[in-house]
Amino acid sequence: MSPVLHFYVRPSGHEGAASGHTRRKLQGKLPELQGVETELCYNVNWTAEALPSAEETKKLMWLFGCPLLLDDVARESWLLPDSNDLLLEVGPRLNFSTPTSTNIVSVCRATGLGPVDRVETTRRYRCSWL
Asked: 4-9 and 73-74: which strand pairing?
């Protein structure tokens, strides 16, 4: 079974505004909600026998990142939940491949990353409670 690699993208300014909107909307229903933080996760199905080399990992991080932000992609999550936090991950079902995955795989193959055969994107939410 091939490993699934995870690449986490730190929220940029516009995602912070979306988090604020989401928090305000949820606080109407859940007044004890203190805050909501988000991040994007690229779940990469890697089919090679060996894990990606440093050069391949660098390419993947470059593809998933913003060219204007440095170090906005990491292999570890930016969201570190406390004991009272709830961490949710929302994305497509794993039993079919999305059109976005097909497009990302085409870009990966064009850059020499042949072992990538599927990339699904999920949104992760950390909800903080009072």
From this structure: antiparallel
Which bin fits 88, alpha (ψ -120 to 50), beta or left (φ > 0)?
beta
CB within 8 Å of 44: residues ≥ 6 apart: 4, 5, 6, 7, 60, 116, 118, 119
The kind and range of the H/E element at 124 are strand 116-129
Closest by CA position to 116, among listed 39, 76, 64, 65: 64
- Which among 50, 40, 33 has a CA at the least distance from the CA of 119? 40
- Distance between start and end Cα atoms, the chain: 42
Q: What is the pTM of this model?
A: 0.86
| H or E element at residue 22 | helix 13-29
Q: Quick check: 61 and 53 in contact, CB under 8 A?
A: no
Q: Give 46-100 pLDDT, tens digit per residue.
A: 999 999 999 999 999 999 998 887 889 999 999 988 888 999 999 998 788 999 9
